[in-house]
Amino acid sequence: MFVARLNGMSVFDPLGDEVGRVRDVVVTLTGRAASLGPRAIGLVVEVPGRRRVFVPITRVTSIDAGQVITTGLVNMRRFQQRPGETLVVGELFDRQVSVEEDGRQVPAVIEDIAMDRDRVGDWRLTKIFVRKGASDSSPRGLRLRRRRGETVLVDAGAVHGLRESGPAQAATALLEAYEDLKPQDLADAMHDLTPKRRAEVADALDDETLADVLEELPDDDRLEILTHLPTDRAADILEVMQPDDATDLLADLPAATQEELLQLMEPEEAADIRRLLTYDENTAGGLMTTEPVILGPEATIAEALALVRREELHPATASLVYVTRPPHETPTGRLLGSVHIQRLLREPPHQPVGSILDADIDPVLPEASLGEVTRALAMYNLVALPVTDQEGRLLGAVTVDDVLDHILPEDWREDDDDSLEEVPDV
Fold it and tell me: CBS domain: which residues (predicted)?
């Protein structure tokens, strides 16, 4: 069974109910029986709720016909890699090794690994699919490496360097295995990797995807990745990120590093972040994005719908259109009112948005506390809320996802459900 084929396969319990999908195979490369080949000890399975759990290989009764059948109960505690354990997709794919050929060692890169069940019932890595030829280990090579060289399937025993991480790896095969994942799921997968491998995967991602992933990672992980990147690329990534997320990330860096990155950014993008950095992180100003959907009152409903259906917009940001006097970039002219996307869908496309304003949604000031923002969102049953200055000019909008990020425990992304019992009182 090749691991690349196993990845993404549905996992079922004995009653036929789907438990989740395979995302990786956990192996041990050392031990008393290592001479028989690396041994698979379990599967990393993604269950509903985007949680990754460990299923011991002893619970697997069958791998066949595009499905994995397990027995017994599945421990729903989040998977945490232990010392001595290695992830096949996450760490072995793209590893630079050497293979024996005519008495000499030929450089190669691992593209897939096959495992078989031995006579005593253990699953062992028996065959390795490699591409012969040297690989560029520079950061640019990690991102742009093209597949060249002869491919060959060899016995695991003929591969040298499997147990050593060695030089920097590319991430071509790994990302192909994860190509069906959304940024949130890719962030979960990267969180489970070692810091070295996480940095290599970050090098291989394009700027837009990496920006999306950073917005979903825990603070420690994304700070680690950003500081690993070359300074000019780090500035490019910050430009692509949502301004509020980029500000949160920059706020954790020393002042000198902040200024260096801001100087490398486009002036307009940097200006938004500089403004957000002046607010306390637990206020409306510190929570808001400076790029909500803004139109003038004469704009048509058709124009508004065209803006909110843009794929790059977060659903919460797209839920409200803010109507202001010119200029229509924050800080804008006076805020006239807001229009919810549901109202836009109910009215004729040619009608101006200024004729259907909801003026009952009171904006909050940038100094408003987290508690005030939370209560306002609950009061109006909204997922976004306008933020204005004393003169009524729109400065930005606070969305419910940013509020949740601040009221949930810092480790909510990685802990069990029990960690959500203690939510700060707002």
Answer: 288-355, 357-414
Q: How far is CA 319 from each of CA 49, 83, 326, 404, rounded to the nearest angstrom?
A: 24, 45, 22, 17
- The residue out of 83, 115, 137 marking a domain boundary is 83
Do residues 269 and 305 both lie within one domain?
A: no
Of 173, 196, 226, which marks where a domain is finished? Answer: 173
pTM of the model as a whole: 0.78
Give the Cα-Cα-Cα angle 164, 166, 170 (nearest 5 degrees). Answer: 115
> What integer pLDDT is reported at residue 173 of this predicted model?
83
Residues contacting 379, CB < 8 A, separation 6+: none
Torsion of CA 91, 92, 95, 100, to 10 degrees: 160
337: left (phi over 0), alpha (psi -120 to 50) or beta: left
162 pLDDT above the threshold of 60 = yes
Nearest one of 87, 85, 81, 141 to 113, comparing CA atoms: 87
The answer to whether the bond into 327 is cis (omega within 30° of 0) is yes
Residue 417 lies in a domain: no
Q: Which pairs with CB-CB distance under 8 Å and at least 24 residues apart come from 14-20?
A: 14/61, 14/69, 14/70, 14/71, 19/45, 19/47, 19/55, 19/70, 19/74, 20/45, 20/46, 20/47, 20/48, 20/53
Residue 53: give the domain boundaries: 3-83
Residue with tokens 């990690």: 142
**Of 299, 290, 286, 308, which is closest to residue 337 (Cα–Cα)?**
299
Q: Tokens at residue 236, please? A: 């490019």
| Whole-angstrom distance, CA of residue 273 vs CA of residue 7 | 40
Report the C-alpha gap between 182 and 285 in whole angstroms: 29
The length of the chain, given as a count of residues: 426
- Answer yes or no: is 217 within a domain: yes
In a domain, 189, yes or no: no
> How many angstroms separate the first and last alpha carbons of the chain?
52
In a domain, 367, yes or no: yes
How many structural domains compose the chain? 4
The CATH code of the domain that includes 44 is: 2.30.30.240
Q: Which amino acid is at 187?
A: A
What pLDDT, in 10s, does the model give residues 342-375?
A: 999 999 999 999 999 987 889 999 999 999 999 9
pLDDT at 238 over 60: yes
CATH classification of the domain holding 381: 3.10.580.10
Of 102-116, 376-390, 405-419, which gets the smallest average pLDDT? 405-419
